[in-house]
Amino acid sequence: xxxxxxxxxxxxxxxxxxxxxxxxxxxxxxxxxxxxxxxxxxxxxxxxxxxxxxxxxxxxxxxxxxxxxxxxxxxxxxxxxxxxxxxxxxxxxxxxxxxxxxxxxxxxxxxxxxxxxxxxxxxxxxxxxxxxxxxxxxxxxxxxxxxxxxxxxxxxxxxxxxxxxxxxxxxxxxxxxxxxxxxxxxxxxxxxxxxxxxxxxxxxxxxxx
Amino acid sequence: xxxxxxxxxxxxxxxxxxxxxxxxxxxxxxxxxxxxxxxxxxxxxxxxxxxxxxxxxxxxxxxxxxxxxxxxxxxxxxxxxxxxxxxxxxxxxxxxxxxxxxxxxxxxxxxxxxxxxxxxxxxxxxxxxxxxxxxxxxxxxxxxxxxxxxxxxxxxxxxxxxxxxxxxxxxxxxxxxxxxxxxxxxxxxxxxxxxxxxxxxxxxxxxxx
Lengths: 209, 209
Known about the structure:
Chains A, B: Pathway: Cofactor biosynthesis; adenosylcobalamin biosynthesis. By secondary structure, the first copy, chain A, is α/β, with parallel strands linked by helices. Chain A has helices spanning about 10-25, 30-45, 60-70, 80-85, 105-110, 115-120, 140-150, 170-180, 195-205; strands spanning about 55, 75, 95, 130-135, 155-160, 185.
């Protein structure tokens, strides 16, 4: 009936996709748990070579997953990240929070002389033990580090994957140097973005692919 | 006061980013209008080399922009695409529609024996003259082509940028072969995704960077 020959079943598509990635990608530097995250992140960008830019600190998966099991919120810098989270995978119906469009953020941005993406973090009032996911704006990641340097409540783990050409690489280097011992997942360099960040959250949310 | 040296002004970050992309990317195969789209799409993925996979049919920009100026809706296959659209750039407060989570979509998917992403298109009831943006699911793009083959109302233009390892490249090849003369923007191969798709929509929505 159709002129196009393609797989119609979502689960089969996922399984075949993950098998292709496992075959083609170099995942040798990752633990089994980290490899599951890497596979989903590769799936989100369509590029197996992206894996060479992934960095997971040793206890990232355990701490990030622990935060979700403890019912802590997920803070996101961008609406696209928040809307990429698969709620059915979350272990405790965790809140997924993005304050970028909160009306107070506009005023805060002027007050602190920074982008709205950075100012939005000043409204993250349950950051202690949370999972923080920066998938868009380098300024948001820099702002997070400034807040931690100043003694802000500590998230359980940080996903640092802003994308772009100005500040993205630098903000992620800064995270790896200045995370105050907080576990992180990073895509080094210019790549990253909301899809890879949401994929990382979704992989953390439930063990196994 | 800060340990981190970075640009705090969003407009300056955009300008510098676009200048870097213009310097590094090979945009020679594009018209000026197409190059603006390409620059924003590169900005969304952090990879200048992605440009070699971009294909714009000759009248894509004019037809897609015309649809938005005529007040037509933007149909998206994924929530992340819809939430990546910058509403302030839209010329006529265009509706941005994603029917993936419509309660009817679940039942439709069973009925047609396809993914929810594909079934969601059966609820796109103002497709004539619209802008269609497929940024996630190859099955949605195949389904669109099947509907057009069967005589469905014709969108003004199609953004075909699903990402992934199973069906993504094939669905985009099929679009370029079987678009029934409808103008398209495509990222060939495995790359693509919601961020590049939303960037393409945002670039179409307003002329100039």
